């Protein structure tokens, strides 16, 4: 295995170097970097051209310039752009912004995509499945800048306008309720009557909820309140226990419920800490939560149920933490909204310049700026995860071992979670790796729509100015990511399948 | 593939109910129903099976119809090359802007309070200098389709040859070809496409598309290689080799025909993504150059028209979505048709 | 921290209004955010490679000088807060400059002799251009001013008469005085040593200082030490996010009228995204290049104010005088001038933005410049003959010249308005009998224009009231090559024109300048060097909560009076 990794690493380095040569030769020929200087009047023209020529080594042959670049890069110096600015500094800012966008969008797309894919595979050929398939294909076929422009108009400008007077029209309430009802009805398995009941119940619940939220102007000053938090925590406890072990045994469920209870109590106890924490505090609290939850599971589960109680409790604990976190965010929403003139969803950039507020307000500022580009990217990559998960699940569900599991009388829940999900999701892990180039490409275009100064502007300004250094910096990061992720995926495959590493 | 039973497993769900499927109900002999009842199994060739499965895929059929409609509309309306079209305006003639350049297309009948069903003088409106926007959109559609098809063809050809050679010959040929593939994969498509786009900007659409095709073949090469790797170990190839068949003949007569399925599917999906790639490149200003236009370029030019003259923004967008959507559906149908495992129903 | 508090108090209304500091002008002026397309990159905007409009817009408020372009008409305004200047002799042309006694850098250092000498050394290109400068027109013809440490007055004495002397002293941003004490320190010299080296032309001693002057003020990822970027204007640079924003706060040591807003943020936003950002309250002031839709989007939005106006920049067609069918055929140029639909261009492309826009009839002089009527008058014969589109007449000329079907390459930069204009011109002139190959490329300025691979080229000149700016456009070039032809892209050559241009450069009487400028126009029409098309339209849009937004047509744009912006 080690030999395989070393070999793969060696190959990757050569591949990357070869690719860098290709890009460098294209990048130095893309535009004339002296074009703007040429338009300057009189002597300024000469001095500007001389300055740029010297800075960019324009009088050297391309191959020499490549090795000059390579020598610098090996010492960690990415050079200067045409204006003489340090590319390292430019890359740092650009990379942080793009990474933020890509990570958030990819994680969200994976979670949502897999969930939808699993549900639609389990309900194959129902109206739900076909709707999901259709919507997935639509998303798959959208030009990202087209949808980005629409999102900006409708979800930023119009939504912010709406926030000034957040009442929901009855038609809209009716529509959402109808859709919710239809979705719930098609998820539930059962006869017509059961479905009708679930349709009516969920539609009515949604309609009531929206009507109440609208009437109380909840959207101007949102929040969950202790009651909803506690309710969600309890629901989470039951849900996660079902997923992990089923509800036949009491101990794991009790452990999870206890964790949820502790979480709600902690919410009140930690009130002063949560007023304006920093990132470290939040991280620490998350670790603490996991530890305490694990402790509860370990103790209450006893020897017999420990294996199920611990994951149930930990998942419940973290979920409760997340709900409390969300609640806090929502509670700070009105403050934040007021500080940006009542228009919390932004259309441009990654942050409000010079914004200073509490942890929560800064968080909301990031959220307000990330929301739309992330949504655009999620829509774009959601489809492939959904489709892939669905196909993979269906394939696994037809395997003999699944049939065997059913035959020996395992519950449907156990069959799905223990056999189908686990095996069906393995190939998806590598999907991200092989897809990283496309994800970055989508992100780069999305950034342009939402006016982010990130990797995209590094590349496009570089191309526009015939400036190879920023282009190469872009390549180092994105091409590097592609090579590394591909290598990791290959190694992961080799780990699973010994035939590959022997070939 | 052939070890699968004929596509006769009882399937549930509306899409798979042959009797209700208008597209296939009339055309199919009663044999299908017989097979479902396990009475007589009609022998069918691989090609027939694929066709039957494809035609049962409702999405793919709809995709075919939509794509046919779009292509027919784009080609016949303003004509192509020497062929004249039935639309009396062309995308380059300027003129007076009539009535603010508003679109004259109306689909609401008089009864419903609309202006009646008619195309009018300028169904999609006019641009700033009085050009007919319908003709422009059709021209954009033609260019986008042309680029997508060229990219699809070039990528498929290059990818298949490289993948097949690498998979069949192994050894240093494979090593070299796969490293070349790795190098191309290592370069993000948008980056290299953008650079090439700028460098050959004034050389026309066809060359631009050819170059895009030359960077888009890696996926196909990998797939084909994988398939060839497994096929070359099969008994029938072994047999051919043992009677002294040349490598070329083995590749072209015995191996490639068996990879046609995945090649067609991958080619289709490449075409769909090429449509979107072209539009993204045009959006960042690295794509088709004027005076020619493309759907991506039209959207980009009229992005700020969204609230002012929305039709200028929506129409080209709808055509891009229509093309990409229909091609994706066709690809999905083809995949199901060539690889029935994916649609087999849980029982 | 202060900035953050101010932002909150400014936008959050009455929450905690006492967070901001009271200023001398009374009350807080809030935060005003300006959206600009290009990022801020350098504190020193006077070097050839750093000089950009964006840098100029920021440094305008940070490094001040004796004069700037401003007001509604974009003419020169003297900045008497900084100092005064007057012409004290015509022969030799002598101008006396006096810096305000109270003028200091924001770090307390007085603005005086060393700053003056540094300015002169850089702007005159002395010491073989050791200190980089954008251009040296004028200053190189003056003798080095003399001054003693602490002196706040100096004299520029010209070797030859010079038309643009009023634009030639230290101004804001582009040709401003920079803090010599910072340059000295970074060059490893004491103030005295630095001054001495400047006075003695000691290039050796100045090497390191010059290196800092040329490169050291380029901003890489983060602001340099605040001590390196002091201010001589109403604002000082206090915050910077690479490629995203630069923040100015009030200069507490400014001796003149303090800036009205507490904070001015210059935010980098691509033009296409600016309107949405303004509508969404993320910026307060924008001035994008207006397309028809963008202008309608702005005027259609309910919550923003806007103003449209013509700018100094104007669009024109250049003929290639070096080769091709137009190079030696005046009749063909006239035929082309007659077929160009100048009226339609304005109606379809400009009037939707600026309703009262008109066809541009003279080149270098804007309708609001004092010499405009004189130039129109001087060109009236040509305008009569060629000023209106007449396809029949154009065709008649082509037939007479036996030139129907002459093949023309017509090129421009790729953007929406130019594509549209190009299509209109192509359609009309093909009707007249030309065969036109129209190209619109993103790298038009990189290759096609400098390499003369065109017969007609369409692009814009950015104008200003100064004469030196356009002087080189029509002057005979030494060599018709990408580097040799300078601004005279078509390589037009005429002895009569060269004489006029020489004459105008050394004239310092305004009426006389206007008269010669009129003659230049008349000759440019007679020879049909170029065809003027239209003044570029400009649009400025702002949040009604911001006061004192006054658009002007000069290249400083809207930020010329940013120090008086405020937000309630």
From TrEMBL, chain A:
Record domain ABC transmembrane type-1: where: 95-489
Any single biological process term in GO: transmembrane transport
Superkingdom of origin: Bacteria
CDD domains linked to this entry: TM_PBP2 (cd06261)
Residues spanning the membrane: 9-28, 97-119, 131-151, 171-189, 196-215, 227-244, 256-274, 280-301, 308-326, 367-385, 431-451, 471-496
GO cellular component: plasma membrane
Protein family membership: Belongs to the binding-protein-dependent transport system permease family.
Protein name: ABC transporter permease
Automatic annotation (TrEMBL), chain B:
Keywords attached to this entry: Cell membrane, Membrane, Transmembrane, Transmembrane helix, Transport
One GO biological process term: transmembrane transport
Subcellular location: Cell membrane
Ranges of Low complexity composition bias in the record: 21-38
TM ranges: 60-80, 143-168, 180-200, 206-224, 255-277, 312-331
Domain ABC transmembrane type-1 residues, every copy: 141-331
Broad class of the protein's primary localization: membrane
Start and end residues of each stretch annotated as Disordered: 1-38
A cellular-component GO term for this protein: plasma membrane
Protein's name according to its UniProt entry: ABC transporter permease
């Amino acid at each position: 295995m080690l030999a395989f990794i070393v070999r793969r690493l060696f190959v990757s380095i050569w591949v990357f170097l070869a690719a860098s040569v290709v890009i460098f030769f294209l990048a130095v020929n893309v535009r004339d970097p002296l074009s703007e200087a040429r338009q300057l009047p009189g002597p300024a023209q000469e001095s500007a051209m001389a300055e740029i020529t010297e800075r960019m080594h324009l009088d050297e042959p391309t191959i020499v310039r490549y090795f000059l670049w390579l020598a610098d890069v090996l010492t960690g110096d990415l050079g200067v752009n045409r204006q003489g600015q340090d590319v390292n500094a430019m890359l740092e800012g650009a990379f942080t912004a793009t990474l933020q966008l890509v990570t958030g969008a990819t994680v969200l797309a994976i979670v949502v995509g897999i969930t939808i894919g699993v549900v639609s595979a389990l309900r194959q050929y129902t109206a739900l499945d076909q709707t999901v398939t259709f919507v997935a294909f639509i998303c798959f076929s959208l030009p990202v800048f087209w949808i980005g422009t629409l999102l900006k108009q409708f979800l930023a400008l119009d939504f912010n306008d709406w926030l000034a007077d957040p009442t929901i029209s009855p038609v809209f309430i009716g529509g959402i309720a109808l859709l919710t009802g239809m979705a719930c009805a098609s998820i539930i398995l059962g006869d017509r009557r059961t479905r009708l009941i679930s349709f009516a119940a969920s539609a009515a619940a949604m309609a009531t909820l929206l009507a109440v939220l609208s009437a109380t102007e909840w959207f101007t000053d949102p929040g969950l309140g202790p009651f909803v938090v506690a309710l969600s925590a309890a629901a989470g406890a039951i849900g996660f226990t079902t997923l992990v072990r089923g509800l036949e045994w009491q101990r794991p469920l009790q452990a999870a419920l206890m964790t949820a209870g502790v979480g709600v109590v902690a919410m009140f106890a930690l009130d002063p800490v949560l007023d304006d924490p920093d990132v470290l505090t939040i991280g620490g609290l998350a670790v603490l939560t996991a530890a305490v939850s694990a402790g509860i599971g370990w103790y209450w589960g006893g020897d017999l149920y420990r294996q199920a109680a611990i994951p149930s409790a930990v998942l419940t604990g973290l979920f409760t933490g997340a709900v409390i976190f969300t609640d806090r965010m929502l509670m700070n929403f009105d403050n934040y909204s007021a500080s940006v003139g009542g228009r919390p969803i932004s259309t441009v950039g990654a942050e409000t310049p010079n914004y200073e507020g509490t942890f929560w307000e800064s968080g909301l500022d990031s959220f307000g700026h990330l929301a739309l580009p992330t949504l655009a990217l999620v829509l774009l990559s959601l489809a492939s995860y959904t489709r892939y998960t669905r196909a993979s699940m269906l394939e696994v569900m037809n395997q003999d071992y699944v049939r065997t599991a059913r035959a020996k009388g395992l519950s449907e829940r156990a069959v799905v979670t223990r056999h189908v999900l686990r095996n069906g999701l393995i190939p998806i892990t590598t999907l991200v790796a092989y897809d990283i180039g496309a994800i970055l490409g989508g992100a780069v275009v999305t950034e342009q729509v939402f006016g982010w100064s990130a990797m995209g502007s590094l590349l496009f300004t570089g191309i526009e100015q015939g400036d190879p250094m920023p282009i190469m910096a872009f390549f180092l990061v994105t091409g590097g990511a592609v090579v590394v992720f591909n290598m990791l995926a290959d190694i992961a495959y080799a780990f699973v399948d010994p035939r590959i590493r022997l070939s | 593939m052939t070890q699968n039973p004929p596509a006769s497993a009882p399937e549930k769900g509306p899409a798979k109910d042959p009797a209700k499927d208008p597209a296939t109900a009339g055309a199919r002999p009663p044999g299908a129903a017989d097979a479902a009842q396990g009475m007589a199994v009609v022998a069918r060739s691989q090609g027939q099976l694929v066709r039957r499965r494809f035609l049962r895929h409702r999405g793919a059929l709809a995709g075919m119809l939509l794509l046919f409609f779009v292509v027919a509309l784009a080609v016949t309306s303003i004509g192509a090359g020497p062929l004249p079209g039935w639309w009396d305006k062309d995308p380059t003639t300027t003129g007076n802007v009539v009535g603010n350049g508003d679109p004259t297309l109306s689909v609401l009948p008089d009864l419903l309070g609309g202006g009646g069903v008619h195309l009018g003088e300028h169904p999609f409106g006019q641009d700033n200098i009085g050009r007919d926007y319908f003709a422009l959109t059709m021209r954009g559609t033609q260019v986008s389709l042309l680029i997508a098809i060229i990219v699809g063809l070039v990528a498929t050809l290059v990818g298949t040859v490289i993948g097949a050679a690498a998979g069949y010959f192994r050894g240093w040929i494979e090593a070299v070809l796969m490293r070349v593939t790795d190098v191309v994969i290592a370069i993000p498509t948008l980056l290299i496409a953008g650079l090439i786009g700028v460098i050959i900007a004034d050389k026309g659409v066809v060359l631009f598309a050819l170059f895009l095709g030359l960077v888009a073949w890696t996926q196909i090469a990998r797939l084909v290689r994988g398939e060839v790797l497994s096929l070359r170990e099969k008994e029938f190839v072994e047999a051919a080799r043992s009677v002294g068949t040349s490598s070329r003949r083995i590749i072209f007569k015995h191996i490639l025909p068996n990879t046609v399925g995945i090649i067609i599917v991958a080619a289709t999906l490449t075409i769909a993504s090429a449509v979107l790639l072209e539009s993204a490149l045009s959006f960042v200003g690295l794509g088709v150059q004027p005076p020619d236009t493309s759907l991506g370029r039209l959207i980009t030019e009229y992005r700020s028209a969204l609230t002012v003259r929305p039709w200028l923004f929506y129409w080209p967008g709808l055509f891009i979505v229509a093309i990409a959507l229909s091609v994706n559906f066709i690809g999905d149908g083809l995949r199901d048709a060539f690889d029935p495992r994916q649609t087999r129903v849980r029982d | 921290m202060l900035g953050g508090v101010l932002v909150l108090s400014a936008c959050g209304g009455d929450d905690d209004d006492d967070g901001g500091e009271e200023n001398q002008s009374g009350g807080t002026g809030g935060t005003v955010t300006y959206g600009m397309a290009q990022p801020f990159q350098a504190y020193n905007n006077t070097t050839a490679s750093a000089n950009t409009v964006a840098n100029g817009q920021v440094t305008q408020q940070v490094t001040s000088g004796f004069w700037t372009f401003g007001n509604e008409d974009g003419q020169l305004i003297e900045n008497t807060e900084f100092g005064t200047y007057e012409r004290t002799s015509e022969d030799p042309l002598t101008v006396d400059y006096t810096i305000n006694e109270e003028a200091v850098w924001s770090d307390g250092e007085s603005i005086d002799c060393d700053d003056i000498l540094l300015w002169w050394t850089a702007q005159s290109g002395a010491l073989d251009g050791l200190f980089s400068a954008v251009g040296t027109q004028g200053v190189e013809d003056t003798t080095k001013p003399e001054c003693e440490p602490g002196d706040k007055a100096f004299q520029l004495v010209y070797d030859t008469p010079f038309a643009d002397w009023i634009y030639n002293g230290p101004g804001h941003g582009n040709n401003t005085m920079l803090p010599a004490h910072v340059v000295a320190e970074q060059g490893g010299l004491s103030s005295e040593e630095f001054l001495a080296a400047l006075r003695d032309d000691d290039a050796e001693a100045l090497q390191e200082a010059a290196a800092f002057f040329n490169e050291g003020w380029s901003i890489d990822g983060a602001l340099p030490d605040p001590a390196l970027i002091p201010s001589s204007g109403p604002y000082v640079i206090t915050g910077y996010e690479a490629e995203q924003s630069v923040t100015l706060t009030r200069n507490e040591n400014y001796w003149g009228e303090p800036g009205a807003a507490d904070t001015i943020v210059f935010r980098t936003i691509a033009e296409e995204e600016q309107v949405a950002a303004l509508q969404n309250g993320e910026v307060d002031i924008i001035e994008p290049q207006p397309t028809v839709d963008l202008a309608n989007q702005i005027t259609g939005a309910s919550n923003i104010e806007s103003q449209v106006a013509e700018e100094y920049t104007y669009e024109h067609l250049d003929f290639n005088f070096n080769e091709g069918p137009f190079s030696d055929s005046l009749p063909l140029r006239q035929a082309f001038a007659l077929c160009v639909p100048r009226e339609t261009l304005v109606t379809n492309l400009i009037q939707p933005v600026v309703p009262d826009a008109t066809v541009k009839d003279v080149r270098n002089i804007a309708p609001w410049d004092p010499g405009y009527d004189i130039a129109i008058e001087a060109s009236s014969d040509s305008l009569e003959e060629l000023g209106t589109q007449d396809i029949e007449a154009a065709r008649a000329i082509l037939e007479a010249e036996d030139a129907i079907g002459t093949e023309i390459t017509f090129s421009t930069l790729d953007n929406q308005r130019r594509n549209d204009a190009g299509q209109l011109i192509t359609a009309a002139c093909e009707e007249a009998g030309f065969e036109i190959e129209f190209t619109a490329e993103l790298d038009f300025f990189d290759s096609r224009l400098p390499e003369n691979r065109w017969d007609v080229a369409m692009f814009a000149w950015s104008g200003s009231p100064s004469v030196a700016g356009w002087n080189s456009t029509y002057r005979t070039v030494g060599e018709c090559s990408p580097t040799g032809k300078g601004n005279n892209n078509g390589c037009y050559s005429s002895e009569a024109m060269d004489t006029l241009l020489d004459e105008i450069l050394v004239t310092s009487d305004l009426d006389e300048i206007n008269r010669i400028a009129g003659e230049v126009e008349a000759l440019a029409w007679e020879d049909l060097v170029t065809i003027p098309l239209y003044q570029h339209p400009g649009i400025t849009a702002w949040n009604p909560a911001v006061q004192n937004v006054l658009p002007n047509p000069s290249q400083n744009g809207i930020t010329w009076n940013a120090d008086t912006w405020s937000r309630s």
